[in-house]
Design goal:
This protein is an alpha/beta fold. The protein has 2 domains: 84 residues, no CATH class; 239 residues, Aldolase class I (TIM Barrel). The protein is built from 14 helices and 10 strands. Strand 4, helix 9 and strand 5 form a beta-alpha-beta unit. The longest helix has 14 residues. It is globular and about 55 Å long. The two termini are 38 Å apart.
């Protein structure tokens, strides 16, 4: 892939050591994220007249992408797989009868503000209402973060709920994205969770390290490494082009502090719906000690159904992947169906 460097925020113009030592740089990088579609097109040498719908499509679900993520895109390529994940597109206007506003049943799973309890043994905390970037296929693009029942002012009720349910052994931090929280807020929450005797594992789901590797600071790694619980981080990487040298360094830092790293991807039309693309991704992940974990069928969210890959096609793609990779590099193809006891494996019986 031929990419061209763009002017970036201060966070990505410094040496790697400075990037991970300075806790302010990731905040500057997020603040400097591109929100104007015209600026994004200009940086990529794409023509605004080819996207007459772009600005209108960005109104209900705004464009947001970090400059370091844009730097990994190929200039003058309208089909760049990273660009296709963040650029507002015409099909977002189309009403699809299969598209839902709450595709995974989040709203029915809210027990107290900020806490979802769907599956036995684990609960999920909605820790933040925002992300480092806006993925157009996001299953929570319609989630009512502004409602008091969705995001608490503090964690008192959520922590009480967990204490009262001793069968909950794992807490999942999600959002939005938990890593957009400041170190102070994150440490306060993690400290409270670390005191709960029934918990064995704290799992963090985050795409922030992909959008802004500078977030993986020395102080964050130390904070996570000092917890007495097992700490798991599930990254969200859909294409090998998302992995650059700064991201690799960030992952090494996490792993050196005992954080277990997994990846989940979404199977996306036009982005990674080819066996060779998924094979390259799994190999690239394994090379930096990230275990391929899940490959999700698209959650059927209204406004993103143009990314959907049918189940039969997904099975054929994964069969080709299995023929080329050892089993430990093949992610499990799954689909989340509201009301079921776990994510449903998609299996082809022969």
């Amino acid at each position: 892939m031929n990419t061209t460097s763009f002017p970036l925020s201060a966070s990505t113009n410094n040496s790697s050591n400075n990037v991970f030592n300075d806790s302010r740089l990731w905040q500057e990088e997020l603040a400097a994220a591109i929100r104007d579609p015209a600026e994004l097109l200009q940086l990529l040498d794409l023509h605004q007249e080819d996207y007459p719908w772009l600005f209108e499509a960005a109104i209900p679900f705004p464009l947001k992408v970090t400059r370091s993520f844009v730097q990994r895109m190929e200039k003058a390529n309208p089909n760049d797989p990273l660009l296709l994940q963040v650029l507002p597109d015409r099909p977002e206007f189309y009403h699809n009868p299969e598209g839902l506003m709450d595709p995974v049943g989040d709203l029915a799973s809210r027990k107290v503000p900020g806490l979802l309890h769907k599956y036995q043994g684990r609960a999920l905390l909605i820790t933040a209402p925002s992300c480092a970037g806006h993925c157009r296929y996001c299953f929570r693009r319609h989630f009512p973060y502004q409602e008091p029942s969705s995001l608490p002012s503090d964690w008192t009720q959520a922590l009480r709920y967990v204490r009262e349910h001793p069968d909950i052994e794992e807490i999942i931090l999600s959002g939005g994205d938990p890593l957009v929280l400041s170190d102070h807020k994150l440490q306060t929450l993690l400290g409270e969770l670390n005191l709960l005797p029934q918990l064995t594992t704290i799992r963090i789901h985050s795409r922030t390290p992909v959008f802004a590797p500078s977030r993986i600071t020395d102080s964050l790694c130390e904070m996570l490494g000092n917890l007495t619980k097992s700490v798991v981080m599930v990254l969200h990487i859909n294409h090998a082009n998302e992995i650059d040298e700064l991201f690799k360094t960030a992952m090494k830092k996490l792993a050196s502090h005992g954080i277990r790293l997994y990846n989940q991807s979404v199977l996306l039309r036009g982005v990674n719906d080819r066996a060779d693309t998924l094979i390259h991704l799994s190999k690239s992940l394994f090379n930096i000690d990230i275990q391929p974990y899940y490959l999700h069928l698209l959650d059927p969210v209204q406004g993103a159904m143009h990314y959907s890959v049918p189940k039969d096609e997904a099975l054929k793609i994964l069969q080709q992947v299995r023929q080329s990779l050892p089993g430990y590099l093949v992610p499990q193809l799954v689909q989340e169906i509201p009301g079921t006891a776990y994510k449903q494996p998609i299996i082809q019986f022969t």
